[in-house]
Amino acid sequence: MQGYIAVILFCLVLVAEGFLFSSSKCPIKKHKPGKIITGDPLLVHKDFEDSLKPIEKAAKDCKVHVFVKGSYYQLPNPSSRAPFGDEDIVIGQAFQFELRDEQNGILCNKLCLSRNPLVLSEAKCFLDTIRRNGLTWSSSNSYIISSGKYASNVAGYGATKTDIQTKCQKESFKRELMLELRQMYDAESQGGDDDDSDEKKKK
User: Fold this and answer.
1) Which of 7, 127, 153, 180 counts the highest number of beta carbons within 10 A?
2) SS3 assignment, position 88
3) Based on the domain organization, do 34 and 14 belong to the same domain?
4) What is the Cα 45 distance to its own chain's centre?
5) Where is the signal peptide (predicted)?
């Protein structure tokens, strides 16, 4: 009976992973972590993913690591106003960061970035390079790297933000469902293994 339940749960996991997520219209994707960009999970708009490649290259060339401190998140309501400075973050076009050295020691944190990070040769190299590549970093929003999407289209921003936030509103529920199904499947599988062991002992 337990084996039958485990099979059903496994099928539900496959359905959740396949049909639910493949049909999602949410444009926010989780960037696969690597050695250069580390830290918190990096959730960005699919159109911003290509910008991560020059960020990684700049970091590698300048001998720094980019430690993510925050990225896309859901607003309480898709039509809610984005907090000041987070306009690009809530549409997946930016993320918060700090700089680490190649041994993952803190090179320039939020406080450092807000003061004068350009006195550090590695930080100056990295920040100058990403700006030459068309990305946005400024002393007024010093711990955020963005595409500059908000500033480039302030008039159309509200509609864009509401659309993205609405499409991604159910993603957190789907992730929670997936986690619960996997936990149930793992627990059921473990229970079945324990029963098999008990049967063998009896024999």
Assistant:
1) 127
2) coil
3) no
4) 9
5) 1-18
Q: How many domains does the chain have?
A: 2
According to DSSP, the β-strands at 37-39 and 43-45 are unpaired
Angle, in degrees to the nearest 10, between helices 121-132 and 49-61: 150
Note whether residue 8 is domain-resident: yes
Q: Is the pLDDT score of 22 beyond 80?
A: no
Q: Which residue has the tokens 């986690």?
A: 179
> pTM for the whole thing?
0.74
Contact 174, 20 (CB under 8 A): yes
Cα separation values, 148 from 18, 28, 132, 154, Å: 33, 17, 13, 10
103 Cβ partners below 8 Å, 6+ apart?
Answer: none
Residues 68 and 156 in one domain: yes
Helix, strand counts (H, E) of the chain: 8, 8
Determine the straight-line distance between the first and last CA of the chain, rounded to whole angstroms.
20
Domain that holds residue 69: 28-168
pLDDT in tens, 81-114: 999 999 999 999 999 999 999 999 999 999 999 9
Give me the pLDDT at residue 23, please: 46
Domain harbouring 80, CATH code: 3.30.1380
